[in-house]
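Batch job 17 of 40 flagged for manual review because the log was empty.
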Amino acid sequence: MKKFLFAAALMVSVAANAQIIDEFDTNQYGWTECSGHDGDAMILDGKMHIVGKKTGTSLFSALTGVSTGEPSFIETHCYAPIDVTKDFEISCDASIKNALYGGRFGLILDYYDEGNFIVFIVSSEGQATFLRYKEYRLVGRIKNNIKLKYQKETDVKLAVKNTYNKLQFYVNDMEALECRYVNLTSSGIGFFVYSRETVDFDNLVINQ
């Protein structure tokens, strides 16, 4: 009986602490892929390869309606098999190629569509920014300066930890931002690239 209870407890513990490692080659979670004038987002050589092609439109003005220009970003997303109302951690590696001043890249959470999501962005100016969009309009922002060697080719580790409606964002294992009272309702996650920049995302790990 004791052995049975121990085995049952072990199974519950494993189930409660599941780890998801995404193999982009199989695209088992249905990542979106696209190619066009805005940019390319596609699985290439086992990585999510994103190329931004547009320049000249401010990310903030484009999505807040101040400008009539279209957003200058490219994104890819999937709906991860996680319960966003519970604690989880997401980490990935980002390899930036041909970085330009003013370029930005990051992680998307709570994704519904291209006008409703939140995103954690790292910029070439050494700034970490949390943005929340609703119906294409910016409804929340937190920013913080960080130390980041952002060169033409740079490797960066991104991570986010969700603990009881508190989001903590990390860059190279150092906390960059903390956001409280964030009520996530969608399991949509993704990657984001702004302006003319090329980023390969790899080693996506989700722990819950």
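Reviewer: the log was empty due to a logging misconfiguration, but the result itself is present. The first strand starts at residue 19 and ends at 21. Unflagging and moving on to job 18.
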